[in-house]
Amino acid sequence: MRIVLFLATLLASQMVVAEKAAPLKADYVAKEVADGVFVIHGPKGLPSPENQGFMNNPGFVVTSAGVVVIDPGSSVQVGEMVLAQVRKHTDKPVVAVFNTHVHGDHWLGNQAVFEAFPKVKIYAHPKMMERVEQGAGIQWLEVMMDLTKGATAGTRVVSANTAVDDGRDIEMNGVIFRVLHDGKSHTDNDIMILLPQKKVVFLGDNAGYGRMLRLNDGSFLGNIHNLDRAVASGATVFVPGHGPTAGPEAATEYRDYLQAVYDGVKEFFEEDLSDFEIKPKLLPRLGKWQDWVDFDSLVGSHISLAYLEVEAAEF
Ligand SMILES: [Zn+2]
């Protein structure tokens, strides 16, 4: 009897957990940024009840072998919106997904794609898969639920199932998707996706454009290096993790910001200033970026992180 009661309670609680929040309210449009390459540019703010957690730039590429999705977003609701956008442009199934890194706003939408296309290959860097296995996915579910006040309810962790690393080419009936990863960057598990024939590169969170990104899990010098690589890749269309798609400036403006912070911190570090003394001296040099979303809330942490990185490089 007790067991039956326990099971009934367990089932009831699972039903509560499984209750799914409403679909996305706002209308989003997929913009064709190159032939057959689409990007849905998400709102630039942090996850909130208003944006229902949608804040990244999901992309999809239509090939004759099927559709490839890049970063299907932060929740099952966002993933379903991405699939609805895909269906406006093609009847072909989604055959592959790339997850650019472990931050949940980019990949928790895997669930929607997997439920609609159970045979889908979901590619990510092996370190991302490792982190999800260690619990990063569950943590991100909680962060999203918290910040959106439940608007992502019903989302569960569907991790990548296929590891890819630097230099790997995945071909879809002649369309090449090249994986770029060279060490720690925005995190230790970022991949960029280059489509050499279409001259498009999906930067993931190696760059925000008009929006600052946290760098707590990353490296200034590594991020600068990876952006330099993207710029040298031959691409002409750059899709940042957040903010509008553009030419190389969508990579170089954030790269220049990272360089300005790092170089400034290094200069004042050598004058024996501490990070809180450095901030007021460095801020006037960062005027070009002061209107970017989240500049005020992140510049202090960027200076502290650069300080630690400069300090570590001295030893
Ligand atoms: Zn990120």
Description of the structure:
- The protein has 315 residues and is α/β, with parallel strands linked by helices.
- It has two domains: 1-163, Ribonuclease Z/Hydroxyacylglutathione hydrolase-like (Metallo-beta-lactamase, Chain A, 4-Layer Sandwich); 207-315, no CATH class.
- It is 38% helix and 19% strand.
- A seven-stranded mixed beta sheet has the order 1-2-3-4-5-6-7. The protein has a five-stranded mixed beta sheet with strand order 8-9-10-11-12, covered by helices on one side.
- Helix 3 links the parallel strand 5 (94-98) and strand 6.
- Helix 2 crosses helix 3 (110-116), helix 7 crosses helix 9 (295-314) and helix 8 packs across helix 9.
- The protein is globular.
- Mean pLDDT is 94; it is low at 9-16.
- Zinc ion binds at residues 101, 103, 186, 205, 213.
Question: Ranges with pLDDT <50 over ≥5 residues?
Answer: 9-16
Give a count of the beta strands, DSSP E runs of length 2 or more.
12
CATH architecture of the largest domain: 4-Layer Sandwich
Q: Write out the distinct hetero groups bound to the structure.
A: zinc ion
- For the termini, the CA-CA separation is 65 Å
Q: Over all CA atoms, what is the radius of gyration? A: 20 Å
How many structural domains in the coordinates?
2
What's the name of the CATH homologous superfamily of the largest domain?
Answer: Ribonuclease Z/Hydroxyacylglutathione hydrolase-like
Percent helix, as a range, is 25-40%
